[in-house]
């Protein structure tokens, strides 16, 4: 209002403005209330959206930063592993050029050791015939009663050490024998 008065150069200064009992006419009251409610809803929705943005944006930035860090770590580990494997291969080639038979046999034994160490079951060819014996070492180890281990240096009983005792080739851990008392 002051701007309008200043624009017309009236010289009037408004210091206080008081509206008393302002009511719209009954014909437009409903539309007036709808306009006020729409303005309030608009402001409420803007405030809710701003609050949601303030909450979600930092979380998303944190997740993005964590994923970026994890990806960098994975990349570094992958490059280091590949570099190590390449270096190992270069050394292996050098050894193979010096002694092919020895290197070939060593590679075979290392591979067999790696494969067999992950398998608790053992198949044994008995006497080169058609019979194959299956040793379920995993089950034997679960059910085994481990014998008392005697230290030959500290043994005062005079008994022969365990390594000299005769063991059953089919039941080397003594799983089928009665527990000691």
Describe this structure in words.
A two-stranded antiparallel sheet has the order 1-2. It is mainly alpha-helical. The protein is built from four helices and two strands; from the N terminus they run αααββα. Helix 2 crosses helix 3. The protein is elongated, with a radius of gyration of 44 Å. A hairpin with a 6-residue loop joins strand 1 and strand 2. The termini are far apart. The chain has one domain.
Structure summary, number of beta strands: 2
Radius of gyration: 44 Å
Task: Estimate the global geometry from the Cα principal axes.
Answer: elongated
Low-confidence stretches: 161-165
- Measured by DSSP, the beta-strand proportion falls in 5-15%
Strand order of the largest sheet: 1-2
Structural class: mainly alpha
Helix-strand string = HHHEEH
**Average pLDDT number:** 79
Topology, please?
Blueprint lengths: L1 H6 L21 H70 L1 H18 L3 E5 L6 E5 H7 L38
